[in-house]
Structure prediction request, 192 residues.
Amino acid sequence: MKTLTEVVDADTIARRVASLGAAITADYEGRDPVLLGILKGAVPFLADLSRSLPAEVEIDFLSLTRFGEEGRVSISVDSATSITGRHVIVVEDIVDTGLTLSYLHGLLETREPASLATATLIDKSTRRIVGVDLQYRGFEVGDEFLLGYGLDWNGRYRNLRSLWAVMDLAAFQDDPESLSRQVFAAETPIGS
Ligand code: 5GP
Prediction:
């Protein structure tokens, strides 16, 4: 069995992110949204998405701590931007069970934004435990574990330009170092 397989290449990600940007631009005309990126996984997605949006868009980040099987969440590093009365778009890397996002929405609603929407690069909808509204979704995937374009394994591989699925978790855990070299060698170079 192949240990890793490229599931979405860099050019496909770029095109999809640009089309999400075009949709957000049209939907938010005249409303000056704030993009609220969830650290650290949303960084590449937010960076690319924001460059498909009008120059006036504001960007901020917050960091979450997740604990417990039930997916409880607290904000470990808060954003500096006041979102009261603002049109907020939460930018996530991936929505899996939905527990993180549903807690986050509850927290953000207490700050009384004018509106709250979510853009996620990846939706693992078949794994959902709690329902969440996702206004902008890049790719729908199954339940494989993904790496790259923000998604990590022990803090690594977020800087890969494409998305990879781990097909053989045991083999990957045995030798992640050599596999990372293979991944970097195999990635489709940007613009090729
Ligand atoms: P949820 O609360 O929706 O179950 O989980 C969301 C978080 O789980 C994501 O922000 C991410 O940190 C982690 N996660 C879920 N699926 C994956 C995956 O396939 N790869 C990686 N690297 N993280 C994942």
